[in-house]
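Supplementary Data S3. Sequence and structure tokens for construct A.
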Amino acid sequence: MKVVLFCGGLGMRMREGAASAPKPMAMIGDRPLLWHVMRYYAHFGHKDFILCLGYGAAAVKDYFLHYDETLSNDFTLTMGGRDVRLFATDITDWNITFIDTGLGATIGERLMRVRRHVEGEEMFLANYADTLTDAPLPAMIDRFRASTATASLLAVPVQSTHHVIDIDESDQVSRVRPIRELMQWENGGYFVLRPEIFEELREGEDMVPHAFDRLLPQRRLMAQRYTGFWRAADTFKDRAELEQLYHSASCPWMLWDANRHSGAPIPAPLGVGIHPPTGTDVPALIH
């Protein structure tokens, strides 16, 4: 199944000085975020990638044009370095298509501009290039295939570490609790899409919320709730936490690496929900 990845964001909250690389090229260990996302999909057999490039496109192209397999694979070196024999490889059987989708394009516009590369597909995968998870992708695809939905997204608990407060009529705080206790859900990406999504996309708009809003009255937007590992690398703090996990060899998302994956069983999705077809902003999902 083809995988469309959105790689053209500025990543202003993660930029260091005059760095020109896009956020998906921020390093986690020896490899960029983008590589970790791609390895997740490749682990489940999905190795045909379409990269929607924008800001920092040259950095993405250069990285793969000069890819060094020895950074993440064991090997034997002989003849003073003239002969390198790899025990395994990462990307030898990957097919990667690089498409410039514009500097200021929205996610929806980027998807529109790679439409011809997924034509003829019964369904395809799409995702942001800076979010990591250990969600059970095959189960997500099976649930989507059995539905009549046009789009499916991974719904994850709100990741904020802030607290919310309840205030009584006399302005006294009556309760303090983590935002996560509100049981609200946020869009975690890891989309599964049918080609009908292109009928809902428009120039100057985005996929979320504009195209997805059009699916709501028809009940064609599916949410697969997941409470296992999911992280978005939006800030330096997020990246530092992922780096810490990497260097402690406790990386739930690295399902392909027995030396770094924590080995904990992957929680099953809580179920499939459909967004309410009303204008309500209540983020809870209905079975």
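Construct B, processed identically:
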Amino acid sequence: MIDALDSEDSARGWIGDSFAPTRDTWTKLDRFVDMLIAENAQQNLIAASTIPTIWVRHIADSAQLLSLDTREGEGLWIDLGSGPGLPGLVVAILSARPMLLVESRKRRCDFLRTVASELDLGHVVVAEAPLERVATRPAATISARAFAPLDKLIDLSARFSTESTRWLLPKGRNAVKELALLPQPWQRMFHVEQSRTDADSQILVGTGKIAAKQRGKR
């Protein structure tokens, strides 16, 4: 069992130990937190009840996905249904990975672009469109924190996958149940990791390409 992050200090400490952020990176993380809280008063980005534990519930919760795919290089990371930029903006602050944030709601896209601009995240691109209208391109990593049921999520994003694509899909306490409902070829691609921020939550981690012939077959 991994040690759970159960306080704001432990969340910040884990991020420091795991990613060795520079002073500038810490400043950007702190600024993002401030912007997220301020914007939450204007539009519902995160549950108000989670603000006192925002470093555990949202920042470390997002950063743990990067710890599951630390590959260097220029591979594109696509964050589906990015919403307030969780996990996409956190990953973009902590790494230089090219980041595509896919979000269909205009007000949320406006927020994402504002944060990327203010924090000088030049490697972030916001796609303001439903995923179905986003141009196909190969993804090194695909993440989705709260996008769609697992089968629909994989089906919609399959065209972005390659043989080396890493799938990072937080699925809460229903991860194993959702995985069991997938066609067998999909199931074999994934394993389950325990979340560091919630003892009841799990993350589906997979590697590989979803081929069209696999869809709908058990």
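Strands lie at 77-80, 99-103, 124-128, 141-144, 166-172, 190-194, 202-207. The CA atoms of residues 184 and 218 lie 5 Å apart.
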